[in-house]
Every structure is written in C-alpha cells, then in structure tokens.
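Reply to dn_fold:

You asked what the input looked like. This is it:
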Amino acid sequence: MTEAVEHYLAHLAVERRLSPLTVENYRRDLASLQEQAQDTPLQRLEGPQIRHFIARLHSQGLSSRSLARRLSAWRGFYRFACKRLGFPRNPCTDLRPPKSRRALPEALSPDNCTQLLDLAPKDDLEIRDKAMFELFYSAGLRLAELVNLDVMSLDLASGDATVTGKGSKTRLVPVGNKARMALNEWLTARGQIAKGDEKAVFVNRQGGRLSARQVQLRLNRWARKAGLPVHVHPHMLRHSFATHVLQSSGDLRAVQEMLGHANISTTQVYTHLDYQHLARVYDTAHPRAKRQK
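and this is what came back:
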C-alpha cells in the first residue's frame, strides 16, 4: 500500500471511526486500484484510465454492485487525497458504474424462523448460539453489532439493548421475550467460560470475544441441523426481522429506527418484499386472480 492509501485508511479508522471490517473492505478496494494502475502513481491517474479499469473489471465478471462499491471507495480516497495530500484531481468525478437491478434481500418465512429457533441446545456453546440467533431475529442486528455487543449494553429487565452501528452511532433496540430467555440462559453459562475481564456478551470456547466468521459458521451449522433447505447467513435474520415486522405493522419509520438506517430509502426495499407477500396472497385467494394450471 502507498503512503497516501495508508493515510486514508487511518483517517477512516480514527477520524471517521469506521469498523475494522469496513476499513478492511476499503483496503481491498484500494489494493485493486493499485493493481490496476500498476506502475502509474495514483496521483497521475485520469478519468479515462479509471473508466478503463472499471470496464476491465466488469469484463472479468465483477458484478455491478461490487463495481459500484469499488468506485465509491476510489472516489472517497481521491476526495481525501485532493483535500489533504495535494493530489491535483479526482479522476473518479462524474464516473458511474454499470447499472444493475437492485436485488431484494433474502428473508426466511416465519415458519422457517420458528424451525430455526425452536431447535434445542445440547451444550453451553449451543446455548450461546441459540441466544445469538434469537437476538439477531428479535432486534434486527447487523453481524458487527452483535459481535461487538458488551454485557453492560444489555438491559434484559427492561427488554432492550444499546448497540453501536455504522458510523459509531448508537441506538436502542428491543429484545423480545424469547431472546431474553435465551440470553439469560447463556449469561449463566457464560460465567464458566468467559475470561475474568472479558466484556463481550458472546465469547468463544477460549473465553475471548467471538469473531464475525465464527458466528457465520455456527449459524450455517445450526441451520443445517435444523433442516432448513436454504443457506442461512446472519444478515438473512436481519432481513427476516424487518420483513416480518413490516408485514405485521406496516410502520416503515419504526422499522427504519430499529434497523438503524440513516435514510428511509434503504428501508423501503422491504416494502417490495411485503408487496410480493401480498401479491401471493391475492393470487391464491381472489376468485378472479387464480392462475390457470
């Protein structure tokens, strides 16, 4: 990595207080820029060259969504470099990635969620796993929010938790009855596993904070054990939370607050999922809508 890129990554981590996972994603995207530039210094790149890099990556099979993220990272780097490091221009200005259809988030059905969460734990680590998955679905947490959650941030008596989301913004999220019962059971078992000074709610078998990758692997294992026919990842439980709350309440603003979305347009994607559900009900129930077989 060049010194300019390292300055920018330090800015993201220290000044903007982005999560380590987000900073690492920026690092990978900027490493791609350096790879495309080869021997050309980054401060000498111009718009046509950046456009050529994007076209080349697209031809190599990189999705439009990945290209958009990569171009956004490059643009942010140059904006910083022009302001702080004396770069002469931002070659990413006015460039746009190839358009793509916005994919709807994957969500489990309520029955699938019940099937997943009703599985009985058989040891202390499975008690921990059940508490994690109940909390994902109960509060709509992001993966990073769950692994960074500390014991002092839980208030199970009141039924809520304080989480730190994107941009180090904190919000209060609800913890439902099933999740509270699972967490109480886990906190009892946790006392025998966690190191004495460990603050994390969820710890590994060595007593330290559980990593994001460990959570992903445990959820995938749990879903297979529960007999679910699809691959289940942590964000799918967040999507399921949002979809099911919106279907039941119709309150988009409340879902926005609970998810921690800065912009309601991000939350509105769940209205499309809700419409799909309504359309299926209509096709099944309306006497003039039933399809010919």
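The longest helix spans residues 64-84.
Hope that clears it up.
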